[in-house]
Specification:
single chain, 454 residues, alpha/beta, Aspartate Aminotransferase, domain 2, 3-stranded antiparallel sheet, 12 helices, 14 strands, 37% helix, 13% strand, flat, binds pyridoxal-5'-phosphate
Length: 454
């Protein structure tokens, strides 16, 4: 055997040995066989769920040491596209970056009269996560906040007509905690006024509306792969679309704003790298360094994508477990309707829930923070609906109402959620024993207050 072949064989054998050891390490260190002790074991609202496949993929990618966008990234984009049934997917480094990229794509001059310009309005809600709204404000567009429905936690479609003006160009909304917003109503509204629709699908991967995956029904969908989400790669996110022009713009903006579409390490994909006129540059200026947008570098590493590829295989099972866990909590808490407003799936939807929320009914004799403290003291982790009402946060202190943002009505339900709602987890790491303990703890808390209640 010559030297080269020997080296190749040795490399293969060594890699195999390393990957086997990694599997062994996983089984020793991470396999969760700890007994659940109610009240003592921590019940997180979410967390990574993985096995040796994720660590093996990660190690494989790190041995390859390509580091940036590479074969795993490509595979991930293709597989997520296939799963969702969309034409184009872009892997990015977070859900917030995905929202930034999705929104900024709408500001491209390539969109001509549909370009979102500074001062144009974008309809959204205040009850949710800040980075659904941040790109709108950072760019200098005007978010218009509409109130939400207390049962679905999504935009109140009865207020849509009131929110539109001659400046409205887009709607950007999250499917709250996995519950799809009323996509039929939103699409009809967007068609009527020629508006873009961005679906922040960060908390809803796998949810369906009218038989189709959320995130694929508007113009652009976004995902987050931060650990609590439906699947993870540590940090990570994605945008997806069927629109060829938006695809071109998002590729450019994700990758520094460049005009060229060569993959990392590859030159002259277009075949005319040095023989075109761009702007007022000298003729034949290297296409690789021609910029059609003011872009970013939002790419993830290939190591993140490698983890994502392993997680994608588990996604259908993750989604099913989230649905089952939600149902167990719902069944257990259904009788608590005197005390709480329970979540309600939007009609025509099949949610892949991110969490199970409870809203205290008006008039109950305890406060949200009292029940939350009780649960946390019992080692049950809780969460608020993120910002509650984003317009009440310090980041709004320098913004002027009616100039920098608009509010439709009084956002009464948004404030109610800010004051009286909380949620617990339904992630795949939950078991029926754990769900039962959450249900029992809530009922135990309520039993203390039952006598003095409404
Ligand atoms: C609705 C929504 N959008 C966007 C994000 C941001 O995702 P990331 O944390 O990956 O930036 C989150 C985060 O949880 C979210 O809940």
């Amino acid at each position: 055997m010559d030297n080269k072949a020997e080296k190749k064989n040795k490399k293969k054998a060594l890699k195999q040995e390393i990957l086997e050891k990694v599997g062994e390490y996983y089984r020793l260190v991470y396999r969760d066989d700890e007994e659940f002790i109610p009240g003592k074991s921590r019940l997180n609202y979410a967390g990574r769920v993985f096995d040796e496949k994720e660590i093996i993929n990660l190690t494989d990618s790190s041995l390859e040491f390509w580091l940036t966008y590479g074969r795993y990234s490509k595979e991930f984009e293709k597989k997520l596209s296939d799963f969702l049934g969309v034409k184009y997917t872009f892997l990015v480094n977070s859900g917030s970056s995905a929202n930034l990229l999705a929104f900024m794509a709408l500001t491209s001059p390539l969109l001509e009269d549909r370009q979102v310009k500074r001062g144009d309005e974008v309809i959204t809600v205040a009850a949710g996560f800040p980075t659904t709204v941040a790109p709108i404000i950072q760019y200098g567009a005007i978010p218009v906040f509409v109130d939400v429905n207390l049962q679905t936690f999504n935009i109140d479609i009865n207020q849509l007509e009131k929110s539109v003006s001659s400046k409205t160009k887009a709607v950007m909304l999250a499917h709250t905690l996995g519950n799809p917003f009323d996509i039929s109503a939103l699409k009809t509204f967007c068609q009527k006024y020629n508006l873009w629709l961005i679906e922040d699908n960060c908390d809803a991967l796998g949810s369906k509306y009218d038989g189709k995956y959320t995130g694929t029904l508007g113009d652009i969908g976004t995902s987050s792969f931060y650990p609590p989400h439906h699947m993870t790669m540590g940090e990570g996110g994605a945008t997806y679309t069927d629109n060829k022009l938006l695809k071109k713009i998002m590729l450019s903006m994700r990758d520094w704003g460049r005009d060229c579409w060569c993959e990392s390490g590859i030159d002259n994909t277009c075949g005319c790298r040095f023989n075109k006129q761009y702007g007022t540059l000298p003729f034949g200026y290297d296409h690789k360094y021609v910029y059609s947008h003011f872009g970013y570098n939002l790419k993830a590493t290939d190591m993140q994508a490698a983890i994502g590829c392993a997680q994608l295989e588990k996604l259908p099972e993750f989604i099913q477990k989230r649905k089952n866990n939600f149902q167990l909590l719902y069944n257990g808490l259904e009788d608590m309707k005197d005390f709480f407003l329970l979540p309600k799936a939007t009609s025509k939807s099949d949610p892949s829930w991110f969490g199970f929320w409870l809203t205290l009914k008006d008039g109950v004799s305890f406060k949200r923070n009292e029940i939350v403290k009780y649960l946390e003291d019992n080692n049950i982790q809780t969460r608020n609906l993120f910002a509650g009402n984003i317009t009440r946060h310090p980041c709004f202190s320098q913004l002027e109402l009616c100039k920098d943002y608009r509010v439709i009505g009084e956002l009464k339900n948004t404030d109610k959620i800010m004051n009286d709602s909380f949620w617990v987890g339904v992630y795949p790491g939950m078991t029926s024993e754990k769900n039962n303990f959450i249900v029992k703890s809530i009922i135990d808390f309520i039993s203390k207050y039952r006598k003095v209640d409404i």
